[in-house]
Amino acid sequence: MSSFNGQGVFKPWLPFTTLLRKEVLRFWRVASQTLLTPIITASLYLFVFGATLGERINVLEGFNYAQFVIPGLILMGVINNAFANCSSSLFMSRYLGGIVDLLVTPVSPPQFILAYTLAAMLRGLLVGLVTWLISTLFAELPWQSPLLAILMAILASFLFAQFGLIAAIYAKNFDTLSMYGNFLILPLIYLGGVFYPISILAAPWSNLSYLNPLFYLIDGFRHAILGVGDTSFGVAFGVSSLLAAVLFGWAAWLIGSGKSLRS
Amino acid sequence: MEKALHIENLSKSFASVPAVKDLSFDIEQGEIFGLLGPNGAGKSTTINMVSGISRIDAGRISAFGFDNRSQYQQTRRMLGVVHQEIVIDNFFTIDLALKLHAGYYGVEDDPKWRQELIERLDLGPHLGKVMLTLSGGMKRRFMIAKALIHRPRLLILDEPTAGVDVELRHNLWEFVREINRNGTTILLTTHYLEEAEQMCDRIAIMNHGELVALEPTRDLVRRLSRRSLKLWLDKPLESIPAELDSYHPRLEGHGRQLILCLPTDSGVSELLHQLSALHLGINDFETDQSGLEDVFLQLTRAGDA
Question: B38-57: per-residue pLDDT in tens?
């Protein structure tokens, strides 16, 4: 047997890249659940709104309904999947006890957050990318500011990766975890302007919609693609960035303090 | 030489209930150290604080001179931990899980070393399986391989043989001795006291979160164990001679068996002289020595009293 005293050279970034690799492999190995299912869901939405009902609806001057709804559907895929990746991976680790394998290693809290976040962002952005590719069968988008659109998609995936981490730490069981998705994210998405511009709502609903943080993400993304939106891109980006910073600080504090992870 | 593990005034409570109270001990490099105690004694809590799974309320822990809070990355690189609970991750085959695990410790996967562990722990036929499909014994072996994949200097085994059959237990301990001979310090907890007695250079016994004994295994057993001498007499004895009172004698078998407690700190010459002078007519004799199990019960029951 070889000597046990010959530990290899310590590579400070290797714990991070290993955890990132593991997290990416985790969703990639069950791609039928993590990538294919959301893509099929998005395709069905695209078919319904792009090829059938969309022709009878007109909500934004100068654009058909498919052009209006596609940015929202892309971002919905990004948001749902970034959230699901972080929340399910971390919660399953906690639930099955596998997290202790990670807690005893030199992986630092910043590396922990970064690896989980980047894997979740990758999954969210992959679903968003494929949704856009499929959407080209139904409508062509004008792509007014592609870089700003990519920036908003990245910001949305980052923000919901942080929220996924937070939900996974606070969740006591699978029921409470699913409540975050079903009773918080889903209503906020549906009421945040994915399917309609909030300007068509009557008061007080249109005013209340400005309190929905997802409205700014969706509107900013649509603004960057179509060149028009319910609010200015600067406001949408500013509010979304602020929210992302708050959630990142919250997640960092939870992971750093070891809440629900270390007894 | 730095201590493999230094624990100083360590305390931990859960919901105001103390689990570990002002615990202090050191583990020397190269030794096999046993941490024993009944359920709830604080062994796993101590191990969890050493490995970083539990936060420390008070006191400090260092491994090979590195503080496990301020220098946690250096400390954790030194440690390999086999948890008491079987940890299951079904996303990866055990081969891939082993490849990934070294990376968490900041060291590149060493295929030669990985293969050595696979062969030594008989994991070869199971490499393509996920953990859920392995038998209990194989899961334990895999957990040991995972704990050793980064070549730790201190291997922590928390009840590694719980629920494992006799043959596998024997093989695992043989393997542990081998890696110890190759320079790895071992900290183990086990409920199999006979194994601890055979394996450990030193033993610490905890009860109610406190250390109740810490000695070289042989000294601990010798100091606290009770040796006895049983004599088969050719004629029944009606009363025990007063000369034997200091040996706490008792009669059994209708007066034909005389049992004497032997001193632990002196020889038996005097007793032999006395027995000879008493002309008892001895047909046969037998000596008996209590093991670690009795010592353990003495110490933990004394604490409960």
Answer: 888 888 899 999 998 998 99
CB of A24 within 8 Å of a chain B CB? The answer is no
B227 pLDDT more than 90: no
Lookup: tokens for A137: 């069968």
> Which pLDDT band holds residue A4 (cuts at 50, 70, 90)?
very low
A112, A250 Cβ separation under 8 angstroms = no
Out of B85, B104, B148, the one facing A19 most closely (by C-beta) is B104
B103/A21 touch (CB, cutoff 8 Å), yes or no: yes
Q: Is A32 an interface residue toward B (CB < 8 Å)?
A: no
**Alpha carbon of B148: minimum distance to chain A alpha carbons (Å):** 9
Does A110 contact B at CB distance below 8 Å? no
Cβ distance of A97 and B88 shorter than 8 Å = yes
In the structure, what pLDDT confidence band is assigned to residue B235 with cuts at 50, 70 and 90?
confident
Inter-residue contact B37 to B43 (CB < 8 Å): yes
Which CA distances in Å does B102 have to A106, B50, B160? 11, 20, 21
Specify the range with the lowest mean pLDDT, choosing from B8-12, B184-188, B210-214: B210-214
Burial B36-47 (b: 16+ CB within 10 A, else e): bbbeebbbbbbb
- Kindly indicate the confidence band of residue A3, based on its pLDDT and cuts at 50, 70 and 90: very low
DSSP for residue B86: P
Chain A interface, mutation test: which of B49, B91, B112, B155, most A Cβ atoms within 10 Å?
Answer: B91
3-state secondary structure (DSSP) of residue A202: coil
Half-sphere exposure of A3 (CA within 13 A, CB side): 4
What the block records as the tokens of B291 is 């093991």
Question: ipTM of this model?
Answer: 0.80
Residues of A in contact with B146 (CB under 8 A): 101
Domain range annotation of chain B = 5-222, 226-289
Q: What CATH code would you report for B5-222?
A: 3.40.50.300
Question: Does the pLDDT value for residue B14 go beyond 50?
Answer: yes
Helices A65-96/A37-46 angle, 10° precision:
160
Cα–Cα distance for residue pair B186/B188, rounded to 1 Å: 6
Residue A31 contacts B, CB cutoff 8 Å: no
- The tokens describing A8, both together, are 């290899």
Cβ-defined contact of A106 to B83 (cutoff 8 Å):
no
Cβ within 8 Å of residue B36, ≥6 positions away: B43, B189, B190, B193, B196, B203, B204, B205, B206, B296
In whole angstroms, what is the distance from residue B131 CA to residue B142 CA?
A: 8
| CATH code of the region B226-289 | 3.30.70
Query: Min CA distance, B266 vs chain A (Å)?
Result: 43
